[in-house]
Amino acid sequence: MLVPQTLQWLEQCKSGRAWLAELPRLVSELTCAWNLEIGPPFDGSNVSFVAPVVQNGSELVLKVQWPHDECLHEADALQVWNGSGAIKLIAHDSRRHALLLERCRPGDTLAASRNADPIEVLTALLPKLWKPASKPFKHLANEARGWSDELSASWDTAKVRCDRRLIDTASDFIDMLADTQGEQVLVHQDLHGDNILSAQREPWLVIDPKPLLAEREFSLAPIIRSFEFGHSRAAVIERLDRLSERLNIDRERARRWAIAQTVAWSFDSSLAVHHYETVDWLMDAA
Hints:
Order of helices and strands: HEEEHEEHHHEEEEHHHH
Low-confidence stretches: none
Largest sheet: 5 strands, antiparallel
Distance between the termini: 52 Å
Structural class: alpha+beta
Helix content: 40-55%
Number of helices: 9
């Protein structure tokens, strides 16, 4: 079985090497257990083996996850959404960390679309995802405190550093926001333009959830920093302003959450400089 090039980086860590060694066996077992005909894997995933499959004539997608914190509860989130605004979960094998998923056709990303207005698409999608939920999902308050605890150490070891004031501001905003949130709903904390695909059942469907329980304002953070929707001061502020207004969201809380999460998620990113620029623009947008 050919392992996609995008997964080769996992050879750098012990758990990654162990999982890659087991991957051919896992895929073979799942193919038999779910009666699948499997095609060549997609090459866009960095932490999962994802491939088109056919089951009894139906086109689906097989996803085998490298076990790590961010992949936890993806299946649970898809079950809560139950196909409303998101792809359907067809089957789940928790022991093998595998999901059998609805396939989107034509499956183009919102990031690559030349005709769709991302703000219009997201204005329609986000309320569908804001479902009440409880266990087993993590709470944003705890997640954000974890970011805050690691900000200084991450900044010290970052290959590309931002101005220290961004670290201090992110920490201050987390302290302000974490315990003063509104109603807690299920949100996708990594909802960028490549995680929204064109489909037939609904015009657009969300994939690859990274679920959290959080206030609605937080769910704008990954969209506001999505450089694929335009990377300029005007584009970033337009996303903040239009989404806040259209969704009746507290703009200032959304702005502060976007700053906090973007700083916390930037240090290991190859696009760190872009994210630091986004934060600088948001700092001046109060």
